[in-house]
Amino acid sequence: MKKLLLILAFAVGLVAISGLVAFNSLVHGPSGDPAPPLVEVAIPPGAGFQEVVDILDARGLVRRPGLFRIYARLKGADTQVRAGPYSFPAPASWDRLLTDLTEGRVLTQTMTIPEGFTLKQMAPRIAAITEVPEDSVLAGLTGPSLDEVWGVPGPGLEGYLFPDSYYLAQGVPLAEVLAAMVGRYREFWNPERIASREAIGMTEAEVVTLASIVQAEARLREEMPTIASVYHNRLARNHRLQADPTVLYALGGPRARLLYAAMDSVADHPYNTYTHNGLPPGPIGAPGAAALDAALSPAETDFFYFVAHPDGSHIFSRTLSEHNRAVAQSRRLRDRLRREQGQGQGNDPR
After folding, report:
1. Mode of pairing for the β-strands spanning 305-308 and 314-317
2. Is the pLDDT of residue 344 over 80?
3. pLDDT tens for residues 222-280?
């Protein structure tokens, strides 16, 4: 009899241990197994937990769905699931499912906005991540009073959606994209930069506007403080900025060449800094941190002019006569490059 009881006790112990091991495998996942394939699944907004479990079960992601629902309820996780796209191993452990779903560890895509982009240039990239038609996105970027809605100086959002790489869920609402971009812009303005702005006597809007011009002019980051110094010097002497990028903005976008006829066509445009004094009414694109810092802390120079070299660098001048010589030098270099390129194409054996 005693021997029988020992055998029964041993059997019960084995069953209990097996049950604990099986339950542990459900909760934490099996140990030592090769990595299973990943399965992507989308949890729709407003889905109840029963619907969530059904979605997971249909994709082979959850074992013992009935017990999983009870486990989630006991942990208080059944009311905290966040919508979005997810990726799980098939099948996944209960803890992995609940942790990712309640913490919103959604699949993300990278949206990169280059420095200097205008709202019009941003629209296709934002449309791709939000899955909203481009014209609707552009309308959402340029609508009335958006500067007041998002708490930026304005006018509008031009210049205040910070250029950077953002990691967002596919199909993210436009409002969340804007919140991320405006938030990144706000992060730029730390106490030291606010103090720098106050020291040079410029408003936030003026700094961003000037920085957007510096961003558009510069090809080399190290030249940004010097380019900014030229514009600061011109503003200090009440001299027109005469910045080509502002005219291009008035014309609606980049052009291969800026001809006088085109410039004349926007002579009355408020963004034309050849015909209007001071800064334009607002930014002409989204400046990055380097351009903003250059506008806040320009180099100390007495330069008043600059002209672009074919290699993207600039020749800086103090007087108009120096500038005219630099312009002639730049033109000679460009003409020589065109001739060399033409000869190279003519000698191409293809």
Report:
1. antiparallel
2. no
3. 999 999 999 999 999 999 999 999 999 998 877 666 656 676 678 789 999 999 999 99
Mean pLDDT of the region 310-316: 90
CA distance 2 to 9: 11
What's phi and psi for 21, nearest 5 deg? -65, -45
Give the type of residue at 303: F
- In the CATH hierarchy, which fold is given to the domain comprising 31-106? Dna Ligase; domain 1 (3.30.1490)
**Amino acid identity for residue 86 in this structure:** Y
Residue with tokens 């949890």: 43
Alpha-carbon distances of 49 from 200, 225, 311, rounded to whole Å: 57, 56, 60
141-162 burial, b at 16+ Cβ within 10 Å, e below that, comes to beeeebbeebebbbebbbbbbb
Q: List the one residue out of 281, 326, 288, 290 whose CA is nearest residue 308.
A: 326
Band of pLDDT at residue 6, cut at 50, 70 and 90: very low
Report pTM: 0.78
Rg of the chain on CA atoms, in Å: 31
For the chain, give every residue range classified as CATH 3.30.1490.480.
31-106
Query: For residue 310, what pLDDT is reported?
Result: 85
* CB of 86 closer than 8 Å to CB of 105: yes
* Cβ–Cβ < 8 Å for 211, 291: yes
Spatial separation of the C-alpha atoms in residues 211 and 195, rounded to whole Å: 17
